[in-house]
Structure formats: structure tokens, C-alpha cells
Specification:
This protein is 54% helix and 18% strand. With 259 residues, it is of the alpha/beta class. The protein has a six-stranded mixed sheet with strand order 2-3-1-4-5-6, with helices on both faces. The structure holds guanosine-5'-triphosphate and magnesium ion (MG). Keywords: Cell membrane, GTP-binding, Lipoprotein, Membrane, Nucleotide-binding, Prenylation, Protein transport, Transmembrane, Transmembrane helix, Transport.
């Protein structure tokens, strides 16, 4: 079966309870909005495949519960995320102040170099605004991450923000020298391993040859010793008389000569 996407990116939304994380995901994945607030229990996810620069990118968007009591569960999902979206509510300055804590949580739990983005949600309620756009922009700039003011309710900047993050991750993964070098280093590693294997094979062959030569020499020596022993025994058994004869004839000669 043909693959329906070129890339799979795992994204994670974090932020205080009630800032609109679930609503942003539902707006993005289903283009829907519900004003009834049902606080997320633990963790949930939705998927949507988008087109990024001609590539089909499947986004698996993980929705975390903002409530403190779920933190142990939710932080376990940071490590697998390729992009993390920090969300605050522009009408709630406490949720903005807490972004620092969420960032700390990322530093402690996420993979190094994870792409991040800051969203100031509920920008449709301008009358209740507590956090200026400039304040949000500055925080994002200080941390070198993207920033958008969004509204899940009025569908402002929702698709755009997800698209921007997906593009960042795509570019990072295709341009990143680490991935290239890791590819190169993988092929190098493979060559290196092959060389090592060849060397090992050569060493093994040499060792085997040495063992064969040594064994052959030992066998030859043993055979020579056996032959010598056998010859010695044969000489002893069959030539006893000859020796005696020789001795006697020698003594005879001696006798003759003495005579
Ligand atoms: N006006 C307005 N209200 C919003 C917007 N987004 C969310 N809300 C409302 O804010 C409330 C909380 O939204 P959720 O998406 O459930 O918040 P959450 O961040 O998922 O909260 P937890 O699951 O508890 O962490 C709901 O009543 C939403 O209707 C928005 O863009 N504009
Ligand atoms: Mg939620």
C-alpha cells in the first residue's frame, strides 16, 4: 500500500489549564469550535496531514492537560515531541507568567533542539486583553522562537501557526548538518564496520593459518620422534646379534692383530 505521507511530526501543546489548547487542536484538525469547557484529563491526540512545500506531512498533535495534577503523565510525552507549542491566554496574565515555568519544564524533559513556538490565544477577546502583543513577541524573541496571536474561536492564525512550526521542523530535519552528518556518519560507520569486519576476518584467517602451521609442525615432529623410536627399537631387536657379531668380529680382529 502506498504511503500516505512523507513525514510524521509529533507536536505537543502545553500551557495552563483553560488557555485553549484543546480548542486550538480541534480548530486545526476538525475546523470546529465548542465554547463548552471540558478540561482535558491526562493526554489526548489528533492527527492531520498537511502539505508543506510539496511534502505530505502528517502531524500527530498531542493535547496535554494543563492541570498540575497531570504533570507527571504529560511530561513523559515531551521527549518524543519534535515540536512543542507553548500556549497562554492573552486575557490571563498569570498564564503568560507561567510560560517561564513551562519553558523550564521543556528544558528538563524535552529533547535538546526541539522546535518551539509561543501562542497567545483568545485574541478575539480584545476587550479583556491583559497581555500586549509586544510583550508576547518579546518573550518569543528572547528565546528565539516563533510567535503568533491566535483565536481558536474566530479561527485566527491557527492553520498558519501549525504550518509555520511544521515547516520549521521540516527545514531543520532536511538542512540540519546533524542529520546529514549522521547520515554520512552512518555510512561511514557502516564502511568502518565493514573494514573492521574485514580486518577481523583477516586476523581470524591469519590466526587460523598460524594454528594450522603450528599443529602441522608439532605433528611432523611427533611423527619424526615416533619414526626414530621405531627405528631404534627395530635396530635393537634385529641387530643385537649384529652388534654382538660386530663386537666379536672386532674383538677377533683385535685378537688377530694382537697375535
Ligand atoms: N473566546 C475564546 N475562547 C476560547 C478560545 N479558545 C478556547 N476558548 C475557551 O476557553 C475554554 C478552555 O478551552 P480549552 O481548549 O478546553 O482549554 P485547555 O487549555 O485545553 O484546558 P485544559 O484541558 O484544562 O488544559 C473553553 O471554554 C473554550 O471555549 C478562543 O480562541 N477564544
Ligand atoms: Mg484541554
Amino acid at each position: 500500500m502506498a504511503k500516505k505521507y512523507d513525514f510524521l511530526f509529533k507536536l505537543l501543546l502545553i500551557g495552563d489549564s483553560g488557555v485553549g489548547k484543546t480548542c486550538l487542536i480541534i480548530r486545526f484538525a476538525e475546523d470546529n469550535f465548542n465554547s463548552t469547557y471540558i478540561s482535558t484529563i491526562g493526554i489526548d491526540f489528533k492527527v492531520k496531514t498537511i502539505d508543506v512545500d510539496g511534502k505530505k506531512v502528517k502531524l500527530q498533535v498531542w493535547d496535554t492537560a494543563g492541570q498540575e495534577r497531570f504533570k507527571t503523565i504529560t511530561t513523559a510525552y515531551y521527549r518524543g515531541a519534535m515540536g512543542i507549542i507553548l500556549v497562554y491566554d492573552i486575557t490571563d496574565d498569570k498564564s503568560f507568567e507561567n510560560i517561564q515555568n513551562w519553558m523550564k519544564s521543556i528544558r528538563e524533559n524535552a529533547s535538546a533542539g526541539v522546535s518551539q513556538m509561543l501562542l497567545g490565544n483568545k485574541c478575539d477577546i480584545e476587550a479583556k486583553r491583559k497581555v500586549t502583543k509586544e510583550t508576547g513577541e518579546k518573550l518569543a524573541k528572547d528565546h528565539g522562537i516563533r510567535f503568533f496571536e491566535t483565536s481558536a474561536k474566530s479561527s485566527i492564525n491557527v492553520d498558519e501557526s501549525f504550518m509555520a512550526l511544521a515547516r520549521d521542523i521540516l527545514h531543520k530535519s532536511s538542512k540540519k548538518p546533524v542529520s546529514q552528518s549522521s547520515c554520512i556518519s552512518q555510512s561511514h560507520q557502516r564502511k568502518h564496520n565493514n573494514n573492521n569486519n574485514n580486518n577481523n576476518n583477516n586476523n581470524n584467517t591469519n590466526n587460523n593459518n598460524n594454528i594450522i602451521i603450528t599443529t602441522t609442525i608439532i605433528i611432523i615432529i611427533i611423527i619424526i620422534i615416533i619414526i626414530i623410536i621405531i627405528l631404534y627399537i627395530i635396530i635393537l631387536l634385529h641387530n643385537n646379534t649384529f652388534i654382538f657379531r660386530s663386537l666379536s668380529s672386532y674383538s677377533g680382529v683385535c685378537c688377530v692383530s694382537f697375535k
